[in-house]
Amino acid sequence: MTTTLRVSPGTAVIPVHAVWGAAAGLVGGIGMGIWMSVSQPMMDTAMITMVAGLLGSTNAFVGWLIHLSIAVFAGITFGALLGQFAQRLAPAAALGLVYGAVWWFIGALWIMPANMGMPVFEWNDVTSSSLGAHLVFGLLAGVTFAVVAQTMGKSSSSARG
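Below the sequence we write its predicted structure tokens.
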């Protein structure tokens, strides 16, 4: 059974897991973005500025905008695909870690380097630091999703009672 949420009378119905996933993706993205802002696997280059390179920029703010957009998308996808299995903390944390690793494989090892003219599927200081960042994203997103799901479940059950 799919639970839905009507945002306003004029909008379409949105699956509630996708909405919860957007919030979870934002929290995970902030944690991952902090990691990428302080991690410098290449001399004097923060990972967040490398993300800005996807749009030909070296500006950290641009990197944050790109990164958080991707994180919210990834969170929505997490909620839509895995939300029904991520209602409790332990399964959500485990699913989040796996989900983060999948995004690392697809995004950091394949899509990003291919778009920037770099070798794909290469293990180096950048990709190893990126794995840590993606695991932080997945763990925070999964745990946040479970907390939101449990909180919303309690509030909706108390509203019915």
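The longest helix spans residues 125-160.
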